């Protein structure tokens, strides 16, 4: 048995506990008296300590141990929560996170002992109340007392039910001759324990240092596989006294109790042939007597097999039972690729069945249609499998805003909604940094200081909102603040000063164009460069990151009222619904997500504004973009002299009309990269393979607008 | 003798024709040779990129070796082929050639380095001698290099 196999679980669980600690401490700061929160923190710190101990991470264990002590005192009402204490706790969290990061990278926690933090924690402990030390000292012996007490009260111990086979009896006989004593032990693991198998392993290790384990119930294999409730029994032979073995076993953390006694060989169920039938019911009986006590919820009929009930492995405190499987993202990528291939094959079938005119083929057409709907659902399911809630990314933001608030000396509050909005895993992994940047931006540049806010008649505490929601095939994430908004004049002045634009250009720019300047590389409006934001790398990085995810960023701002940053991301990156069009005899795909409407426009209604062709459609003026020009495609001779077909595409609020020759129809297309060799072409975001094997290019309408 | 033969290395080349000249392409780069097929033009790219084709479900760019090397544009015939090469960095790239002749094995010794790399021999690494005449060994990295 090797602890390293638990490393992944450990890291995951540690991450969860740290997050929960962070959340709860945030709550605690607001409501210092909230008992639920204090208990929750205590529990999380305790679990962390136990887990770190199990894995042998001593520094981490020490730190969490002291945190636990502090909370134990808080829980007992001996210490009151104070602001500086919260700060220390957050520093502890940072340190713990550093440990887990080290462990993730090198499976070693590193040598940092964080003594200053431990000292700070101890100061809190000592400063809290004089009686606190006694309190914790008292608690300790009580726990230790429990074990012998329980041992004394041993009436019907489970270890007495261990069935001994021939080999075991022989070994026991031998041991007796050598003057060793056989002991039976029953170990109860705490119900909140997460790595039960690892605990059991440590108990075994501790016992084996003192003697030899003969047999266990359940078997070592089952214990390794966590196939036991919270209790297991074993028989050991040793020349050491029983007390020593029991205390060694109970020294393992998260072990609730260890009971044991000297094994009386005569009274033990020795498994021989005639006994076998009797033994089986006994085991069953003991199981059923345990069942109501241990897990009253599990009323599944206890199977006659020797394997203990496997139900309800989840630790308490997480009542919602999630049945999940961990899958390597690469395996999902392979699956996704196969689905893509399937869709291409399906498209060829659709094309082939469409070309035949035989009536006999209607059966095939039916089946092809069926296949079409199945592949579409298959694609959706695979996509959903890859989706994860953005919660994993945004959950660290409240803490970040709190720190920023202290650092910047501004009062602010973060309100989040839609944390359960789901996005493709690869997108979620990438979105954290851009969001963080936008939030920092709002905190640093957006929100005014409390005095100015007061002057302007705003509430002293600034608000930052982070809202996520799904809209059609896109996920929208909005970062909003009620701060100062963007001062376009300041931006313009800065841009001219930096040489990004000339003064003449600046005079002709619309407000929107000026705001877009913020996304220019090397642009920062912060008058003083702070370490929060304003190093001049930022918004342009945000923009390129979002664009690399096929998304887009937009800003709306009102001077004095605040700004809204909108990030729009596609749900999936691999397969899209697209409109197929022809331009100059060539086929192109336009993502349906960006298409607003399709219009048949008479040529006479095209107007010229500033020498650009526009159309007037239902009260909006829409610029026309002739795809023949953009794509350098040949013009057909037999162009309709009366009308043109215009595909109206939108990007945020902006609209544009793309002039095409012909519409082919809607199709599900698999996006293929054009490869690294051809990357100069901005308007083409990729290619797809059509049903007949031909390659069609995918137009990126966002670039055109 | 034995020692000598271990030092001497030989490389296999696919011999292709561009006009009347014979060129050798290191076979270790060659993934596939396909017939000329319908190509999808890609806008806004260099003139020697003729477009992209569908190669077993992958989209592969194809370049005109002739235009890249400053020769007359291709005239498609029955013998015209696309040689698909695989590069570590750029992935698959197809090269249009007039014809594919044969595979030859050349000793590194029998290849003479071209002295002046600046001239129109910019895409030729060296010249190999066979019984049938001379073969110009193509410098594939120079061919896919954007700068030239």
Characterise this structure.
The complex is a heterodimer of chains A (705) and B (148). With 705 residues, chain A is an alpha+beta fold. The model of chain A is unreliable at 128-154, 270-320 and 526-537 (pLDDT under 50). Chain A has five domains: 3-130, Four Helix Bundle (Hemerythrin (Met), subunit A) (Up-down Bundle), CATH 1.20.120.160; 143-293, 2-Layer Sandwich (Alpha-Beta Plaits), CATH 3.30.70.1110; 329-388; 390-570, Heat Shock Protein 90 (2-Layer Sandwich), CATH 3.30.565.10; 575-704, CheA-289, Domain 4 (OB fold (Dihydrolipoamide Acetyltransferase, E2P), Beta Barrel). In chain A, strand 12 and strand 13 (586-591) form a beta hairpin. Helices cover 45% and strands 22% of the residues of chain A. In chain A, helix 8 runs antiparallel to helix 10 (242-250). In chain A, the strands form five sheets. In chain A, strands 14-18-19-17-16-15 form a six-stranded mixed β-sheet. In chain A, strands 6-8-9-11-10 form a five-stranded mixed β-sheet. Chain A has 23 helices and 22 strands. Chain B is mainly beta and 148 residues long. The termini of chain B are far apart. Chain B has one domain (7-144): Beta Barrel (OB fold (Dihydrolipoamide Acetyltransferase, E2P)). Residues 1-5 of chain B have low confidence and may be disordered. Chain B has helices at residues 2-7, 65-68, 140-144; strands at 10-18, 21-26, 30-35, 49-55, 58-64, 81-87, 91-97, 99-107, 111-113, 124-130, 133-138. The A-B interface holds A 341, 344, 586, 630-633, 672-678, 680-684, 687, 689, 693-697 and B 38, 40-46, 49, 51-54, 57-61, 89-93, 144.
Condensed summary:
Chain A is of the alpha+beta class and 705 residues long.
Give the overall shape of chain A, derived from the CA principal axes: flat
- In helices, the fraction of residues of chain B equals 10-25%
Q: What's the CATH C level of the largest domain in chain A? A: Alpha Beta
Task: Give the tally of structural domains of chain A.
Answer: 5
Number of strands of chain A: 22
User: Could you tell me the strand content of chain B as a percent range?
Assistant: over 45%
Count of separate structural domains of chain B: 1
In helices, the fraction of residues of chain A equals 40-55%
Q: Overall pLDDT of chain B, averaged?
A: 83
Output the CATH homologous superfamily of the largest domain in chain A.
Histidine kinase-like ATPase, C-terminal domain
Global structural class of chain A:
alpha+beta
Number of helices of chain B: 3
Rounded to the nearest angstrom, the distance between the terminal CA atoms of chain B is: 43 Å
N to C succession of SSEs of chain B: HEEEEEHEEEEEEH
How many β-strand stretches of chain B?
A: 11
CATH class of chain B: Mainly Beta
Overall average pLDDT of chain A = 76
Spatially, the strands of the biggest sheet of chain B line up as 8-1-2-11-10-9
Q: Briefly note the CATH topology name of the largest domain in chain A.
A: Heat Shock Protein 90
**What oligomeric state is this?**
heterodimer
């Amino acid at each position: 048995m090797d602890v390293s196999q638990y490393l992944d679980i450990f890291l995951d669980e540690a991450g969860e506990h740290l997050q929960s600690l962070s959340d709860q401490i945030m709550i605690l700061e607001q409501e210092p008296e909230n008992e639920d929160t204090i208990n929750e923190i205590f529990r999380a710190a305790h679990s962390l300590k136990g887990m770190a101990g199990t894995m042998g991470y001593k520094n981490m264990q020490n730190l969490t141990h002291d945190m636990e002590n502090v909370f134990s005192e808080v829980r007992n009402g001996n210490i009151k929560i104070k602001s500086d204490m919260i700060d220390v706790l957050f520093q502890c969290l940072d340190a713990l996170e550093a440990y887990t990061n080290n462990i993730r990278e090198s499976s070693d926690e590193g040598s940092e002992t964080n003594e200053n933090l431990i000292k700070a924690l101890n100061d809190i402990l000592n400063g809290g109340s004089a009686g606190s030390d006694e309190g914790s000292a008292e608690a300790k012996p009580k726990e230790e007392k429990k074990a012998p007490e329980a041992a004394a009260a041993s009436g019907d111990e489970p270890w007495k039910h261990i069935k001994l086979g021939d080999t075991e009896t022989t070994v026991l006989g031998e041991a007796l001759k050598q003057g060793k004593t056989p002991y039976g032990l029953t170990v109860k693991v705490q119900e909140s324990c997460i790595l039960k198998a690892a605990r059991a392993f440590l108990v075994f290790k501790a016992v084996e240092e003192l003697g030899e384990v003969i047999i266990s119930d359940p078997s070592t294999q089952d214990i390794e596989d966590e196939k036991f409730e919270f209790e297991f029994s074993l028989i050991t032979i040793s020349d050491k006294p029983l007390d020593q073995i029991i205390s060694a076993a109970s020294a393992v953390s998260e072990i609730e109790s260890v009971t044991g006694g000297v094994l009386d060989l005569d009274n033990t169920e020795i498994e021989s042939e005639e006994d076998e039938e009797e033994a089986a019911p006994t085991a069953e009986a003991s199981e059923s007597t345990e069942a109501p006590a241990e897990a009253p919820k599990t009323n599944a009929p206890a199977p006659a097999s020797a394997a203990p009930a496997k139900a309800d492995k989840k630790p308490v405190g997480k009542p919602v039972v999630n049945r999940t499987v961990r899958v390597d993202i690469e395996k999902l990528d392979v699956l996704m690729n196969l689905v893509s291939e399937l869709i291409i094959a399906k498209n060829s079938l659709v094309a082939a069945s469409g070309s035949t005119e035989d009536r006999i083929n209607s059966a095939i057409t039916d089946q092809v249609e069926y296949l079409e709907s199945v592949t579409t659902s298959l694609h959706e399911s695979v996509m959903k499998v890859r989706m994860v809630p953005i919660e994993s990314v945004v959950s660290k933001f409240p803490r970040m805003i709190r720190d920023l608030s202290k650092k910047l000396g501004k009062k602010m509050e973060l309100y989040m909604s839609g944390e359960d909005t789901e996005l493709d895993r690869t997108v979620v992994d990438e979105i954290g940094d851009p969001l963080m940047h936008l939030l920092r931006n709002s905190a640093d540049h957006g929100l005014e200081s409390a005095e100015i806010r007061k002057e302007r008649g705003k509430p002293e505490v600034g608000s930052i909102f982070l809202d996520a929601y799904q809209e059609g095939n896109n996920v929208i994430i909005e970062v909003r603040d009620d701060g100062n908004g963007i001062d376009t004049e300041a931006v313009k002045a800065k841009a001219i000063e930096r040489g990004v634009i000339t003064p003449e250009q600046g005079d002709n720019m619309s407000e929107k164009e000026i705001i877009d300047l913020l996304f220019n590389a090397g642009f920062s409006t912060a008058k003083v460069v702070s370490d929060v934001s304003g190093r001049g790398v930022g918004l342009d990085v945000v923009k390129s990151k979002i664009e690399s995810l096929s998304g887009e960023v937009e800003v709306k701002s009102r001077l004095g009222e605040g700004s809204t940053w909108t990030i729009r991301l596609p749900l999936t990156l691999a397969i899209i619904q697209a409109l197929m069009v022809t331009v100059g005899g060539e086929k192109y795909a336009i993502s349906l997500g960006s298409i607003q409407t399709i219009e048949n426009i008479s040529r006479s209604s095209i107007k010229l504004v500033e020498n650009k062709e526009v159309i007037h459609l239902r009260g909006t003026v829409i610029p026309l973009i002739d795809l023949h020009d953009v794509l350098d495609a040949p013009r057909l001779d037999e162009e309709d002299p009366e009308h043109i077909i215009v595909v109206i595409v939108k990007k945020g609020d902006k609209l544009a009309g793309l002039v095409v020759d012909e519409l082919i129809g809607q199709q599900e297309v698999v996006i293929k990269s054009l490869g690294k060799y051809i990357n100069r072409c901005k308007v083409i975001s990729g290619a797809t393979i059509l049903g007949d094997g031909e390659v069609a290019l995918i137009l990126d309408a966002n670039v055109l607008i | 003798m034995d020692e000598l033969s271990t030092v001497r290395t030989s490389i296999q080349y696919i011999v292709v024709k561009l006009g009347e000249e014979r060129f050798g392409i290191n076979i270790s780069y060659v993934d596939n040779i396909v017939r000329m097929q319908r190509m999808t033009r890609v806008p806004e790219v260099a003139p020697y990129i003729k477009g992209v084709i569908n190669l077993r479900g992958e989209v592969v760019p194809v370049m005109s070796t002739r235009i890249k090397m400053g020769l007359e544009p291709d005239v498609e015939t029955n013998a015209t082929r696309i040689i698909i090469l695989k590069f570590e960095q750029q992935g698959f790239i197809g090269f249009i050639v007039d014809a594919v002749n044969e595979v030859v094995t050349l000793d590194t010794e029998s290849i003479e380095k071209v002295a002046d790399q600046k001239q129109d021999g910019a895409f030729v690494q060296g010249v190999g001698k066979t019984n049938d005449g001379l073969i110009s060994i193509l410098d594939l990295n120079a061919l896919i290099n954007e700068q030239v």
